[in-house]
Amino acid sequence: MSEQDGASTRKKIVNKTTWKKTIRKYCRNKGLSYVNTKNKEVSEKSEPSEDSCKCQFSCTCLTLECRKKLFHDFWNLGDYNEQQIYLKNLIRLCFINRRRLGNYEDATESRRQRTFKYYLIIRGMSEVQTWWKKAKTRPQWREKIIVYIKSIPAQESHYSRNDAPNRKYLPTELSVVKLYKGFLEKHRDGSTKPPVSRQWFNEIFLTEFNFSFKPPRVDTCPTCDSSKIEIDTAPTEVVKDLAKQKLDFHHKQAVMARKLMNNDGADSKCPNSDVRVVQFDLQQQMYLPTLTHTQMYYSRQLAFVNMGIHLEDEGKGIMFL
């Protein structure tokens, strides 16, 4: 029978709206749950919660209702191309203000010459700069980092207790990088990806602790050194407590002596004062001639020190070599 007679043809009408591919694409663009091509279910996009962003930008001015409205406005577009245009209008291409060191001498050799800034346009407000939210690290790793750093022996400073009474010092040979590598070796789980990043480890080290690394020890106090050796090698707790009391008394004597010296210096500057304060100090030992090549390093050199005499009341310094 021909088509002129009004009979229906045997060719089927294609209805693409019922295809699994079309349904999957529609649900994905709307933020709904769907089953992907690997037969795995992808959960639905959830609304923003009370948890707010804590970045350095202006995300705090975005209320929960405003964030929910932005969420629904984006997913109600329902089209991938329109969503990409929406996001593109909120991204600004900018020059890099602060560049990290890389494997190049000239900044123009870097592969990345621009950076991106992200904004949101809110009704009744100007553009608000935002940032993506960092993924939360498991809280147990934070506790592990704190316990690991606390296990490193730390000491108080001998000279800066008044300026920074709560600061403690770690051994000279350590650094944050070495601490991080030691933490990874202790908590190695067999995977190639580290459980925590070095930036996060460094952030906890700086915010949770008042630690610093001691400079190389030179011109140390013999009383302090001998007391510390007694504490480390004490056979019993009684001997260790006595050595700690001795060291603490020595520290108090040093603080008292410095206070007396400062008071005498202030008295000497008063008019008609009969007090005169003179301070003596030997500076760091130096070698002559100052050369760094191998022959001079293994040769005998002339060593000398700079003797400084300071007249406190006159504020005058005299140096003798």
Automatic annotation (TrEMBL):
It comes from the Eukaryota. This is (apollo) hypothetical protein. The lineage of its organism: Eukaryota, Metazoa, Ecdysozoa, Arthropoda, Hexapoda.
